Fold these 2 entries.
Entry 1:
Amino acid sequence: MKRFKGFVIKEFYHIFRDVRTMAILFGIPIVQLLLFGFVITNEIKDAKIAIFDQSKDNITQKLSQKILSSGYFLLEKNLNNYNEINQSFKEGNIKLVIVFEKDFAKHLEKERKANLQIISDASEPNTANILVNYTIAITNDFLKEINPNAKVPLQIIPEVRMLYNPDLKGVFMFVPGIMAMLLMLISAMMTSISITREKETGTMEVLLVSPLKPIQIIVGKVVPYVFLSFINAVVILILGKFVFGVPINGSILLLLGESVLYILTALSLGIMISTLTKTQQTAMLISMLVLMLPSILLSGFIFPIENMPTPLQFICQIMPPKWFIIIIKNIMLKGVGFAYVWKETLILFGMMVFFILVSVKKFKIRLE
Amino acid sequence: MQEETENIIYVRDLVKKFGNFVANDHLSFEVKKGEIFGFLGANGAGKTTTIRILCGLSSPTSGEIKVAGFDAFKETEKIKRNIGYMSQKFSLYEDLTVTENIRFYGGIYGISRKEIKVRTQILLEKLKFEEVKNTLIKDLPLGWRQKLAFSVAIFHQPKIVFLDEPTGGVDPITRRQFWEMIYEEAHNGMTIFVTTHYMDEAEYCDRISIMVEGKIAALDTPLNLMKEYETKNMEGVFLKLARNIE
């Protein structure tokens, strides 16, 4: 046990003395989280629009006011004829044009009906959709306001509630995703690099010749990373909660427990990679290509798995981050207990056991 | 019993096969206590395989092998406690200081912290390393690292130390100094098992064996070998043996 302690202390020296390791361990998680949280977002803010108001009465003015004060839109310019519409789209920065027909207020009063045209730039289909929907919603709202007692013949007004993420905040999705990605990156890549480094410098040979058992060597190398990854997980959760307001509705203990399981899974994957590779570079490359990209693309982090072609969906099933994301989203957003995530937990656990078994086998073969 | 205490390494008919490939073909030799035993051979002759077996890293296919009195099949753990090992890479942690390296290697052999302190002090004085004791290994010249690597390999006072091409990439003067350290340890009763590519170094050994294609082609004192093969230096012996095979 004393030997083992010395080994772990040595490992901490390695980590704390290497600027790059420290940067990866503590710089990247925070920077990534902030980047993803603030930059990549599918909410629309301050989209530039143009208004072609052919009526210029008090109703169109009020409605324009309401649309512009919603926070989603910013008036770029007022148009004066139809030709300008095409022109302003071509110039590129206008996402939406709202056209009020002539005598808008009059029509509304007399015929109880007026035409409003919404033209959007669908070269970005998602944005276009969202903007159009926002505009319609605001307009409907406005109608109710100016006409509270309207005897509208039999109307069905659907009331939509977005459960668990009522404001459809993108960051709710990103925090679990980032956590899954970063813990995978740190745990798997750092351990595989640190083990292959010992092979490269020849110190692994010396360790193997020593009375230390192979299992002690491996565990000794991994322990510091379990500890540091755990700190990282906590930092991400704290940032998520206090900077981005992502709720933690479920049990914190369960959440941390699941994080530890995921960290261990990633670490055992890292060990497996290191038993298959000889140099730090290969280990790093494999970690990056095999772990990083798929864990972003195929984990359901950014792109919904249900929309992928079937073969890809199968590959998604073997990505550990996929299961972890499901687990933490359930715990954080839905606030469910272990009874609802035991299946996913079991799958992660199974993956960990598999990685460890393969590593042990490979390690023995290498010794032969 | 008498023979066992004298022959610290005892190898009879060591065979190691990898599938159909025979890496070690019925090797037999002994190494005596306090002897400097040179283990020579071209690359791929099977030297590394033998060393790995003797160090308890790999198990032999068949044969009778005893290292420091322990069986290479069953008692590899005990063998590991009684040997030291140094490779051509010098195997120190570059981002640790001199004392940290010593403390780490002492620690994994289970030496108590107090004992490590005492021995470290003696070692630093002996190597005249007191001024660099808190220097990182990567800031030390190669020759210094080599000396330290050797001292660390024998820090737990093993009965045998295996040196796998310990002088690779080091200038002749440093090599000479290094061999002085080896002589001193051998004089104190430690057995030295060394592989090398430098034929002049082979002449420093008490006895040498030359491996060719998995077999021991020659084994004697350097002087006898030179006589037998009628050459003036070990290089000649080595070349003649290699040619015979071709």
Entry 2:
Amino acid sequence: MNKFYASFIKEVLLLIRDRAGIISLFVMPIILVFVMTVIEDTALNSLVDKQITMLYSNVQNDSLGNIIKKGLNDTKAFTILDEVDGVKLTREATKKLVADGKYPVGVYIPSGATDTLKSNARKVVLKTFADVGLGTPSKVTPRYDSVIIDIFYDPAVKNALKAVVDGAIAQHSSIIVGKLISKMYTTILSDFLPGGKKLVVDYPQMISVNKEYASSPDNTIKPNSTQHNVPSWTLFAMFFIVIPLAGSIIQEKEGGTYLRLMTMPKMFISTFFGKIVVYIIVCLLQVTILFSMGVYLIPYAGLPALQIGTHFDALAMVVVASAFAAVGFGVLMGSIATTYQQAASVGVIIIIILASLGGLWMPVYFMPKTMQGMTEYSPLSWSLKSFYDLFLRNADMKDVLPNVFKIMMFGTGSFIIGFAYKAWKKVK
Amino acid sequence: MADNTIIEIINLSKTYKGSSKPAINNISLKINKGEVFGLLGPNGAGKTTTISILCGFFEPSHGEVYIDGLSVTKDKEQIKSIIGIVPQDIALYPTLTAYENLQFIGRMYGLKGKELKSRITEYMDLLGLDEHTNKKVGAFSGGMKRRVNLIAGLLHHPKIVFLDEPTVGVDVQSRNLIIQYLYELNKAGTTIIYTSHYLQEAETLCKRVAFIDNGNIITLGTPKDLVANAEACKDLESVFLMLTGKDLRD
């Protein structure tokens, strides 16, 4: 115990006197988590949540145009402009402003659109009645004049935004067409009713949509930039422990202290346990600081607070397992690398690759299908998935156990390979 | 093993993986209790490899080594508690103070409390470092670092001390103090195995020396006998040059 205590104290002293190490372990991650959360909040919102500015040209104040505009406004997904610099938008002006990259999307409603639609609806209804012997029979198939609504896109606009605009306009157009045809049926049917009676059809709301997140405890936790970035970059920072940890191991090898340590009795377990415990505590401190920042500080930047779920026992288990894996990886790099530069550069590149594959840089669902399959092989992905499960899906201990097992296996494997390599080098 | 023998090396060889040439080649040697034994040779001769095997840092390819009757391959942990090593590199943590370094090393050898503190104070006094106990080692001069490095190898009162170039790169005053202290240490019964490129130093300090070159022991004896038996050689350095040649070594 005395040896473990000696090693523990030595590692603590070395760490707290390494200013660069302290900055890379605590200060940089705080900045990284904050900056990435704010930046990605903007990026994610531009795709999904934030209002899209849309030019809307409805020069003749056509009622179809007005109804579509109201429908788009009601979605709260768009900021609709029908004039720019006090000038009403024409088709050409709308197209040019979008082509110049000043606006992402423009919509043009042609003149007489409502009349054309009404005429088409009437033709549809009359033909239907004529086909069953009501009204004046017609042998000629009526000609329908199509209403063409123009949508102009900036080439840089993402497909997700196009889908939102296309869907919204198609949805509201269909509703209007449906209503027009229905109204036309009731009007024309009323002509066949005796005594000048009018057919009145009351359409109740037959379908309503209930939206909720499938598995959070109070259905209020939404996947957002905070929920993604805080755990992601915390994991990234934890694995960055490779730099000071591998550096410490390599400096001992290079400086001769390793030789001295190896000639001390029963040093291996006490020395390495002392080192490992200190760095696991560092990882736990990182998580405490960064998650606290997510919960208490991030909201001051106008972002949602980090929700850490309700299963704190499972959360503690995921955090400890992730810390164990990060420290194991640091020991592996410190054992295999021969110089500090090698450990720092190779270690960091491996972490960046594992972080990319693990969905830390961007959520997995943004990745191509082929890359999504690769996430299964990153320990950072196992940790991140566990955090997602705990924070967004109200998972408990048994739900995260399979991923925790994989994380622990990675950590154990790293330690074994690291120690085996050291032993092999000694025999060699 | 004879009663007076503390280290016995029997047909020891070491070939590093990937190398066709052995670093040490079938050497045999006995070192007596209380002896100051010099292991001398040019760069790459096999001195550090030999010491590394004796300390249990490397496994031998062939042969046996016994230290105080214990096998270096089978009784490593017991051997570690009776040996001390002073490596050529400064094996200390530069951001820790001299006291913190020695406290860590002492604790690793099982020392604690007042005993550890008094030993650190005693050694720091003896080697003229008492005013620098709480200064960081990184701020020390080369000579001061060497002296702390020496203390670190002696703190647990080992029976046998391995000194790998303990005076390299230090000023005359520090070297003199270290050598004086090694005399005192040897007088108290500690066996010293010593390597150095300072042959004059070895000549005055060592009771016996072995010249090692290309992994083989090429001669063994007291410095006085080696000089006397070599024609036209006035000191150990000229014997050394005669036996190992004047060609530069990598």
